[in-house]
Write a sequence for this structure.
């Protein structure tokens, strides 16, 4: 039969055999001292590691800031260089456009000069053809002229230049040698009206209310509307020349080099006399 358990209060005290001598107390102190030193060094190691990490992070932040600063400076310099390059390109483009404009103007000037040269060449060729026609006309009319008139007419043929009516009206008419027998009383002799082509029996050939003489001297067309097509280049080309009409009446004209106007010389017999008076 098992005995009943006893209450702890009823249990007899047990003897404590733990050694509590001086050696045991010194050992515990050493343990406590060791633990304190250990924890002390652990704290210092932690602080050192933390400081190293902080310094490393600070150095890394400074490095990142420095690199970012360099990058920003590089971007700024690149932008400045890009602006300069863009400005240079813009200036170059402007210069290129200016050169193109000057080249276009030069080409236009050359084209105009070539056109003027072609026109003058054509006029000279036409004058040569007109003179050839005039020589042929001279051979036809020589028989009907007296010896004196024939010599004068020969002089005009040799030194004169043939001209058509269309080219003759490009030279303004001078108020000279316009008188003589004047059937219509407009101030132009019948002889010059025949040479010009106006109606010798009407003072106003085109019926516009102005006399033939007034219209011609003012530079207007006496046979129609508008002004006569005066051509300064053609005038300059023929200054000092004797022009002889090849299409009708063989009228002789002298282009005065001083004023660039055409002076009517009349018929061959009076042509040299008219020239001597100029």
């Amino acid at each position: 039969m098992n005995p009943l358990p006893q209450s702890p209060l009823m249990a007899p005290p047990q003897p404590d055999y733990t050694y509590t001598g001086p050696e045991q107390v010194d050992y515990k102190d050493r343990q406590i001292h060791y633990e304190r030193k250990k924890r002390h060094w652990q704290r210092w190691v932690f602080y050192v590691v933390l400081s190293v990490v902080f310094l490393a992070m600070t150095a890394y932040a400074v490095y990142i800031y420095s690199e970012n600063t360099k990058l920003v400076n590089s971007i700024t310099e690149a932008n400045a260089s890009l602006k300069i390059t863009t400005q240079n390109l813009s200036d170059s483009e402007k210069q290129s456009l200016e050169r193109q404009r000057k080249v276009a103007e030069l080409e236009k000037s050359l084209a105009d000069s070539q056109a003027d040269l072609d026109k003058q060449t054509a006029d000279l060729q036409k004058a040569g053809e007109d003179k050839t026609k005039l020589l042929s006309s001279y051979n036809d009319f020589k028989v009907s002229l007296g010896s004196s008139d024939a010599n004068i007419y020969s002089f005009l043929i040799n030194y004169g230049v043939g001209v058509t009516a269309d080219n003759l009206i490009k030279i303004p008419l001078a108020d000279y040698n316009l008188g003589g027998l004047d059937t219509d009383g407009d101030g132009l002799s019948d002889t010059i009206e025949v040479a010009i082509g106006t109606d010798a029996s009407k003072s106003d050939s085109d019926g516009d209310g102005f006399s033939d003489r007034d219209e011609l001297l003012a530079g207007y067309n006496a046979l129609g509307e508008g002004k006569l097509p005066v051509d300064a280049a053609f005038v300059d080309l023929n200054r000092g020349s004797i022009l002889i009409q090849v299409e009708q009446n063989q009228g002789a004209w002298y282009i005065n080099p001083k004023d660039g106007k055409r002076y009517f010389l009349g018929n061959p017999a009076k042509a040299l006399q008219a020239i001597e008076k100029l």
About this structure: The longest strand covers residues 262-266. The radius of gyration is 62 Å.
